[in-house]
Hints:
This protein is of the alpha+beta class. 46% of the residues lie in helices and 13% in strands.
Amino acid sequence: MCTYHWLDLNGLLMNPDKTEAIVIGTSTRQRAEGSSGTLDLQCVSVKLATSVRSLGVRIDSTLSFNEHVDSICKSSHFHLRALRHIRKHISADTAKTIACSMVHGRLDYCNSVLHGTSAMNLNKLQRV
Length: 128
């Protein structure tokens, strides 16, 4: 049975233009599966991506989470830079509270997926 038909029979709909797939595995497997750039699901083709986003977590094909850590750092630095605009109007304690409330959630969200990540990624997060 075609995946597309299975989804249809169960009241679900897949938009192939908005659907992405990722091949997770060794470099040999990735080259074999990703050579065409699409994944054939019998009735529909889905484009292969180097990373996908699921529930706010960037998952890359090697499970290194480099893109996820970069995204966390970028977002955190954006909010810290935005705090500079009001910094002169608030006390140091208030600024620390605001900074912690804006950044702490980003650092803490789904941090269990980072178990075993590289020292370079951990250092980036520590600097934030």
